Amino acid sequence: MNKENLPTHIAIVPDANRRWAKKHGLLSWQGHLEGAKRCVDNVETALELNIKCLSIWGGSYNNLTKRSKIEIEFLFKIYEQYFKKLIKRQELHQDQIKVSILGRWPELLPKNGIKAAEELINLTKGYNKKFLNILIGYNGTDEMLYAIKGVTKEARKNKNLKINENTLKDHLWSGHLPPVDLLIRTGSQGDPHNSVGFMMWLTANSQYYFTNTFYPDFTKKEFIKAIEEYQRRERRLGK
């Protein structure tokens, strides 16, 4: 593929793990496990292509509070397991990858999961060449409310505060990240849509790529196909 005109920031909404499991006569948690494996593949592909910033939605707040207890607990185990695997990856240091975990995960994950997440964040907090962002317990609407409350609190302390785009962005969980160039959503099945305002500020001018492919089948080949489609498009950015 053409290594020019690559997106700087790719975000993935990995939908249809459960539908994939049902299709194959498996349980929901088995679909999530296959999806987790695909996440690893996607990260490796992004590194291979020298993508600067990759964001993967690991689960909304709704996903982690409204589904069955068994499914949620298994997701928590997957998060912890893969955080620990990431901690051991030398690529984090070689490529100076800053890992951010965004969302309300501190109020949802068990103690061991929180500990692993915090260790991963602290291990890479000094890096800034590449960025890997995992969104857990994340709703875009929650992020925006958090930012607005933060701006309000700052404005009470600083009467001369100028409230503009940069002020709001500085208070977002994802405020340190570049805009999303390409947003990929898998498992669309003729229903292309966003969910709970996913990264609403950073996706204001994003290119969207919807595929019917279920996330466990979203291989390297499929990932590259999405990027190549992005490269063929003309980004007008309102001009």
Written overview of the protein:
The chain is an alpha/beta fold. The chain has a single domain, classed as Decaprenyl diphosphate synthase-like (Undecaprenyl pyrophosphate synthetase, 3-Layer(aba) Sandwich). 44% of the residues lie in helices and 14% in strands. The protein contains nine helices and six strands. Helix 6 (111-124) links the parallel strand 3 and strand 4 (130-136). It is globular and about 60 Å long. The two termini are 28 Å apart.
Overall SS class? alpha/beta
**How far is the N terminus from the C terminus?**
28 Å
| Model regions low in confidence, pLDDT < 50 over at least 5 residues | none
Give the overall shape.
Answer: globular
Whole-number tally of structural domains: 1
The CATH architecture: 3-Layer(aba) Sandwich
Radius of gyration: 18 Å
Helix and strand run? EHHEHHHEHEHHEEH
Overall number of strands: 6
Helix content: 40-55%
Q: Could you please say which CATH topology applies here?
A: Undecaprenyl pyrophosphate synthetase
Number of helices: 9
In terms of DSSP E residues, the strand content is 5-15%
In CATH, the homologous superfamily goes by the name Decaprenyl diphosphate synthase-like
The CATH class designation is Alpha Beta
Physical arrangement of strands within the biggest beta sheet: 3-4-2-1-5-6
Sheet with the most strands?
6 strands, parallel
Averaged pLDDT: 96
